[in-house]
Amino acid sequence: MKTIQQILKQPEVTFVVTDSGIGGLSVFAELISLIQSGNYFKKAKLIFFNALFDANSGYNRLATAFEKAQHFDNALFAIQKQYHPDLVLIACNTLSVIYPQTHFAQFSDIPVIGIVDAGVNLIRATLIQNSDSNVIIFGTPTTINANSYRQKLIESGIAANRIIQQGCLELTDSIEKGWNSPQTRKYIELYSHLALKQFTQPDAPFFASLNCTHYGYAAKIWEAVLQEKSQYFQGLINPNSAMLEFMKNEHQANHQTQTVLQIEVISKVEISEQTRDAIGNLLSKISIAATNALQSYRWVKNLF
Q: CA-CA distance, 239 to 291, in Å (whole number)?
């Protein structure tokens, strides 16, 4: 298996970003922007692969870890067969905690970067810098039930009583339908309320970590709601861009005078025009190319 450093020295690369929906498009957009501005490669093929298997279901609605791993395995092997990527980035907390249980993780020699470790490192650094503060980790039920963040933070030296976790059922779907809709705000208000009730010391300062890539789209709503509910709210932690730290190295940049980019968004399920417009407007602040790729995405019903 090649190392990340070896891959970054290649003149041509294929990177695939995957998610169980379109939350990871924010990571995809930032990756495009970094590669465009950094001229790391002579040619770069960048694919966003939506690993959602059914528009009427989803990984968080499946009953068992085996079922979740099986569906993600199908997506991963389809990525390998169709694109032969140099690197896969799992821009999804749900899929990142599922990944170790897949056959792909055991047998593939393709390097894979998940978002969980980046999130843990960012939360840990924030709590070390703010030694009197706690953190609320907001995530999907799968992410929270896996307990990966809590365990990794405790193993890294963060006291267990500084960590609150709150699962957010249906919030991801609501954000995709409308990140600034009244329904999305109601969900954020509900889960913020449930999280704050868990504090044994209500006057303790705290940060809120958005550990689902979708949640960052509604960052302004999270901030407004948490500020309304508590004077002790210190700010948001958003791990999305942290997973691209491996790219943010000046010594790796500017190997080439220009990078030729090939960009594609592909999905097994339909992405509605309403969703493409709403999310596309947000992505345009990071990368117009990402917005254009989303608008012209390929819908392939038998993708995996």
A: 21
